[in-house]
Design brief:
Shape: elongated
Low-confidence stretches: none
Distance between the termini: 95 Å
Number of strands: 12
């Protein structure tokens, strides 16, 4: 093409158009606000968890990105708070019940008005566990004197074991396995019963 002064254009006039029809996707991550520290993988009643959605592209300010949940507790679609164009968060207070809590996204769109994909690419679920572990082994044990083996404490869940009580200083416990041993082999002529 030539302008009125006679200058000939050397630039290409070809243009391309990209048609975006893919909805934005996001991964979810869970971080303790109250009730623990760091990444949350299993939570309990009263914990406050920061649910962070990280999107693969910028999300428009309107309509507002929303999150909903089902499983242990039903959460109707509720607005998330924007950190920046690709990060949104929601503070979730964990309620009663046990099981899998599943989160989904809704209403948000990208710059081409494509609606967000509801199912997160990762992190859609988190475990809610409000059942306290219980000790399944006997509350008493009889052991021979002059040996250090005392009792193997078993629980219904994986827990960290510790000892307290009247004679706790006489014992050691493996914090992982629950095996209790006397620090010094007992002599029944000195003491016949121990409590912890």
């Amino acid at each position: 093409s030539t302008d009125p002064a006679g200058n000939v254009s050397v630039a290409s006039t070809a243009q391309s158009v990209v048609i975006d029809t893919a909805g934005p996707t996001a991964s979810l991550a869970y971080t303790y606000v109250i009730g623990g520290s760091g990444t949350a993988t299993s939570v309990k009643e009263g914990d406050v968890v920061l649910v962070t959605a990280t999107f693969n592209e910028a999300i428009e300010d309107s309509p507002v990105m929303q999150i909903s949940a089902s499983g242990v507790t039903t959460i109707a679609a509720t607005d998330m708070t924007q950190t920046d164009a690709t990060h949104y968060y929601y503070n979730w207070t964990v309620g009663t019940g046990d099981g899998t809590q599943t989160f989904a996204l809704a209403t948000g769109t990208d710059g081409s008005a494509n609606v967000v994909t509801a199912t997160p690419t990762s992190g859609a679920t988190i475990i809610v566990d409000n059942t306290a572990p219980s000790i399944s082994s006997s509350a008493t044990a009889s052991v021979a004197e002059n040996q250090t083996s005392a009792i193997d404490v078993d629980a219904t869940d994986a827990i960290t074991y510790s000892i307290s009580g009247t004679d706790a200083a006489s014992f050691s416990i493996n914090s992982t396995s629950g095996i209790v041993t006397f620090n010094t082999a007992p002599d029944y002529e000195t003491k016949t019963s121990y409590t912890f």
